[in-house]
Amino acid sequence: MKVVFISAEVYPFSKVGGLGDVLGGLPDSLANHGVDVKIITPLYASIDKTSFDLKQIKTGFDVKMAEKSFTANIYKSVSKTIHPNHDVYFIDNQEYFRYFQVYTDNHGNPYNNNPLRFLFFQKAALQFIINEKWNPDIIHCHDNHTAVVPLYTKTTFSELAKSKTILTLHNIAYQGMTEMKNKEYFDLPDENFYPMSNLEWYGQINPLKSGILLADELTTVSLTHAREISGDNELGAGMKHIINERKKPVRGIVNGVDYSVWNPETDTFIYQNYSIKTLHKKKQNKKMLLKESGFAANLEEKPVVGMVSRLVEQKGIDLILDGIEKMLSLDLVFILLGSGETRYHSAFKKIKRRFPDKFFVDFEYNNALSHKILAGCDIFLMPSRFEPCGITQMYSLKYGTAPLVRKTGGLADTVINWDKEQGNGFVFNDYTADSMLEVLARGLQIYRDKNHWNKLVKNGMKQDFSWDRSAKQYIQLYENMLK
Ligand code: ADP
Ligand code: GLC
After folding, report:
1. Taking the model in full, what pTM does it have?
2. pLDDT in tens, the chain (483 residues)
3. Are 312 and 16 in contact (CB under 8 A)?
4. Residues near ligand 1 with C-beta < 6 Å?
5. Ligand 2 pocket test, candidate residues 7, 142, 255, most atoms within 8 A of CB
6. CATH architecture classification, 276-461
7. Rounded distance, CA 132 to CA 375, Å?
8. First to last CA, the chain
9. CATH second-level architecture of 2-256+467-482?
10. For residue 28, how many other CB atoms are within 10 A of its CB?
């Protein structure tokens, strides 16, 4: 079975959030099950061709964007150690990728030509598949950046009409909207832009809508989120009716974890490796994390709450800001790593100034520190407003760091509230600071009861969220599509 993944992020080459992690783990696992997997992704300026061992393999070909043509150059990863069981190809273009990061500039503002950048990417990727005569059985698309592919394989790129398409929704809230005046860039018959048609959405162009309508299969990254987006228009970001127009329902396949990257026994970023059998060694990570964050040495006995997150509304940052005074009045330390919206950066800067001995924030994108926080904290906070899957809570389980989450999407599917000596974390329901703090206070109580605490974190560490489980479900789905 030949499957081509087209995606805006692929770890370790590019990663903004969980999409990168998914593309770093799922294809490996599919290839281990005998699927012939290839990935196509953009070559952003942030990807270092030399250290990743990328080689240009083709002279460029032209891709039409309205009146102009742009050259797509193709690079391939030839590294023997990074994703050795499947090929990763990169689309390079000066105008759209070479001077850009993934989606946003250094201040977190989305580039205003994003819709065109990813439109170019999709056209180039499809043309490349045609040029190479790969004839894939399945083209697996991810999010709005690749959502026009199902429409393209039925129209402009009809050489690929035999390939089935699947669209996985990692985040339905981002739809790739652009103004109607940009329709000439799409190279598609006008009827796709008429009111109520494949791409039209309240007078604008909505790429995600066309993917939802036309992909042969539509999936999202947890069972609960599949129910949420098809049953609730707000959680479906306005797309509920479009999802329900499809003949087949949206399926939920929960993400996995790449335990070759996220495992406290082998993690090379953390200060001290440990396992369920040597859990006492986790403390060294806490000690060093506190030190590196500039805290006094005597804080080790206090519970440390950590968070690694994009700082956007989705992640429940408003709850934290609402409840921060009460939270920091509890006997704890809070360490936050995240970047995103400016208003949140300013708010957290102020909090750091007011509570320097209880609160630490780092606004970088720092992969090593994200591992250290997962290993060094006691409680990992994810109070999301909505969460299609969420991957970090699954990391925290493996690292013996109890997740404290809001009951939504994939968080509801992976974290079980500690009750009657069962469970792996803490879960609250209402989207209010008070319900978050109530559960946090309960968490701190259990933290002080070492027997129960050990049992709770060991429950989490024993769980297996490896990609293998999800890969098998995707393979089943692919096989059904080809019947
Ligand atoms: P989302 O994709 O919505 O951001 P996920 O929980 O699925 O949420 O995945 C987030 C991923 O991004 C995790 O691997 C997390 O460690 C990483 N991440 C988020 N912010 C940062 C940051 N500032 N530095 C390093 N890694 C980060
Ligand atoms: C999105 C979602 C997150 C999910 C990730 C990978 O960014 O916000 O919940 O885990 O995609 O599927």
Report:
1. 0.96
2. 999 999 999 999 999 999 999 999 999 999 999 999 999 999 999 999 999 999 999 889 999 999 999 999 999 999 999 999 999 999 999 999 988 899 998 888 899 999 999 999 999 999 999 999 999 999 999 999 999 999 999 999 999 999 999 999 999 999 999 999 999 999 999 999 999 999 999 999 999 999 999 999 999 999 999 999 999 999 999 999 999 999 999 999 999 999 999 999 999 999 999 999 999 999 999 999 999 999 988 899 999 999 999 999 999 999 999 999 999 999 999 999 999 999 999 999 999 999 999 999 999 999 999 999 999 999 999 999 999 999 999 999 999 999 999 999 999 999 999 999 999 999 999 999 999 999 999 999 999 999 999 999 999 999 999 999 999 999 999 999 999
3. no
4. 17-19, 21, 308-310, 337-339, 365-367, 370, 389-392
5. 255
6. 3-Layer(aba) Sandwich (3.40)
7. 44
8. 12
9. 3-Layer(aba) Sandwich (3.40)
10. 18
- Report residue 21 as tokens: 């992690």
Q: Hey, which of 10, 221, 413, 470 would you mutate to test ligand 2's pocket, going by the most ligand atoms within 8 Å of its Cβ?
A: 221
Which residues form the pocket of ligand 2, taking CB atoms under 6 Å from any ligand atom?
17-19, 22, 170-171, 221, 255, 387-391, 410
Q: Which amino acid is at 72?
A: A
* Protein residue with its CA nearest to atom 12 in ligand 2: 170
Structural domain spans, the chain:
2-256+467-482, 276-461
Nearest CA to ligand 2 atom 5: 18
User: Which residue, judged by its Cα, is nearest atom 6 of ligand 2?
Assistant: 18
- Residue 168 near residue 143 (C-beta atoms within 8 A): yes
